[in-house]
Amino acid sequence: MKHPLKCPNCSDYRYIEYQGVRFKDHEAKKGIIVKIPFFVCKTCGKKDSILPRERFLSFRDEILPSIHDGEFFDMPLKYVFSKLDSEKRFKKFDHLNFQYDSRDYYIIPGLYREWDEGYLTPVFFDKDLLLYYNGHPDYTVKFTSFSSCNIYYKGESMFDWGFGINRYGKLFKWLGDLDRDFKDDDMKPHLKRFQASNLPSDHEIVSKFYLSQNPFSPSDAFQSSDNETKLFSLKNEFNKEIIEKMEVELTKVNIEQLAEYYKPPILEEREQIFSAYLSLNKYFIENLQEQSLREILLKCGLKKDNLQKNGMKLGSLKLFTLFIEHGLNKENANKIVAPLFVLNDLRQLHGHLSDASFEKTYNSCKERLEIPLSSTDLGVFKALVTRLILLYQSLIDKKYD
Ligand SMILES: [Zn+2]
Predict the structure, then answer these.
(1) Torsion of CA 392, 141, 120, 81, to 10 degrees
(2) How many angstroms separate the alpha carbon of residue 206 from the centre of ligand 1?
(3) Domain segments of the chain: what residues?
(4) What pLDDT does residue 399 have?
(5) Mode of pairing for the β-strands spanning 31-40 and 15-24
(6) How many angstroms is it from 118 CA to the middle of ligand 1?
(7) Measured in angstroms, how far is the CA atom of residue 122 from the centroid of ligand 1?
(8) Among candidates 380, 297, 371, 368, which has minimal Cα distance to 335?
(9) What residues does the ion ligand 1 have nearby, CB within 5 Å?
(10) pLDDT tens across the length of the chain (401 residues)
(11) Partners of 17 in the beta sheet?
(12) How far apart are CA 146 and CA 300, in angstroms?
C-alpha cells in the first residue's frame, strides 16, 4: 500500500498545513471561515483537504440562518469535527506538562489507536536539547540516521525508541513514550530539561523514525541508515574485504573505535559542522596506511616512479586513487574518489572560516558535490556524507539495494 502521506502526483512525502478557507452562501454575502488541514506537496504544489469537504458544506448550511448578511464568522475546527480541538488534552499525560497539538494524533496517518488514546501524539523539541548531552562526558548523542537519534548514558541508550527528526529539523517523541521514559524519579531532572526545550507542533513528522514505526508497507518498515552510522559500517566492511582479499590492513586505527568518540554536528552551526569534517578526515584520510598502499601498488606492477611526482612522494589520497585503479581494477578512479578530495578541502577550510578566500573554496566544494551554492552548511554536510556512502558502496563487492 502506498503511504498516505505520499503525493499521488510525484510520490514525495507531503506536509500537513492549516489554511483558512471560506465557506460562503450562494450570493457570497455571508459564511464561515475555518482553518482546515491540508496535505501539501512542496515539490509539485498539489494540495488536498484531509477532511471531507461535504461535512464543511453541510455544517455551513446548518449555521447560515444564524448569520447576518455581510458577516463572516471565524469558526474553530472543533465545531465541525468535535475531536479536532486544538485545546484538547489527553488527561492521563497531563502530569508531564508538555505542549502538543492533539489534532496531530487524529490527522497524521497511522497514529490513531482506539485502545490507547493519545499515546502516539508527537511532542516537539528544539534540537538544542541535545547540546547538553553531547557536551557532557557521561552522555553521547548518536544519530542512527539523518532523521532519528538517541541519547546514551555511559554507553546505554537512555530511551527505548529515541527521537525522530522532522524535515524542519525539530526533534519529536511520542507522548506515551515520554510518559514511560520519565516514570522513574531519577529521570525528573531530565524531564525539566525536556520541558524547557518543548516547542509547539508544526505537524511534520516525516522521518525514518516515523515511517519505520508506522509502516503502511514492508518497505516503510525497513528503513536503512543514511548517515555517518551507515558510512562507518561501510568503511568497516570495506576494510574487512581488503584484509580477506589482499591480506593487508589499509588503516592505522579501527574505525569502530574511532566512531565511539565521534561528535556529530547537531545544529546549523558552522564551527560544529567543520569540526565534524576534522573527525571524518582523520578517520577516512589521515587513517590510511601510506606504507601498505605503496607495497600493494608495487605488487600490482607499478614502479617507484609512479608513486612520486617531481621527486615528492605521493600523498595518501593520490595513493588511494591509484589503489582503486590498479588494486581494485575500477575504471573512473578519479571520479570515484572525488568526495574524499572534497572532504580534504573542507577539513583545510576549518582553520579559515573567516578568511576572504573561504567562500571561493567552499563554493568549489559545493559545485563538486553537485548541490546549489545556496545550500546550508548542514545541507553540504549531508550531501558529502551521502556521496561518501555511495563511494564505499561502489568499492565493496557485496551488493546493496
Ligand atoms: Zn507532489
Answers:
(1) -90
(2) 15
(3) 15-79, 91-221, 228-395
(4) 58
(5) antiparallel
(6) 30
(7) 24
(8) 368
(9) 7, 9-10, 41, 43-44, 46
(10) 889 999 999 989 999 999 999 999 888 789 999 999 999 999 999 999 999 999 999 999 999 999 999 999 999 999 999 999 999 999 999 999 999 999 999 999 999 998 999 999 999 999 999 999 988 999 999 999 999 999 999 989 999 889 999 999 999 999 999 999 999 999 999 999 999 999 999 999 999 999 999 899 888 888 888 999 999 999 999 999 999 988 888 888 777 777 778 888 998 999 999 999 999 999 999 999 999 999 999 998 888 888 888 888 889 999 999 999 999 999 999 999 999 999 999 999 998 888 889 999 999 999 999 999 999 999 999 999 999 999 999 999 765 54
(11) 38
(12) 39
Distance from Cα 49 to the centre of ligand 1, integer Å: 14
C-alpha of residue 45 to centroid of ligand 1, in Å? 6
In whole angstroms, give the CA distance from residue 125 to residue 169: 10
Of the chain, the end-to-end C-alpha distance in Å amounts to 20
* pTM of the complete model: 0.87
The one-letter code for the residue type at 16 is I
Q: How far, in Å, CA of 89 to CA of 329, rounded?
A: 63
248: Cβ contacts below 8 Å, ≥ 6 apart: 242, 292, 295, 296
Q: How far is the CA of 12 from the centre of ligand 1 (A)?
A: 6
The whole-angstrom separation of Cα 172 and Cα 127 is: 9
Question: Residue 144 corresponds to which cell in the numbers above?
Answer: 542512527
Q: What is the CA radius of gyration of the chain?
A: 27
3-state secondary structure 323-376: HHHHHCCCCCHHHHHHHHHHHHHHHHHHHHCCCCCHHHHHHHHHHHCCCCCCCC
Distance 42 CA to ligand 1 centre (A): 7
In this predicted structure, what is the pLDDT of residue 276?
95
- What length does the chain have? 401
Distance 87 CA to ligand 1 centre (A): 31
Calculate how far, in angstroms, residue 225's C-alpha sits from the geometric centre of ligand 1: 24
47 CA to centre of ligand 1 in angstroms? 9
Q: Write the burial class of residue 215 (CB in 10 Å: 0-12 exposed, 13-18 middle, 19+ buried).
A: middle
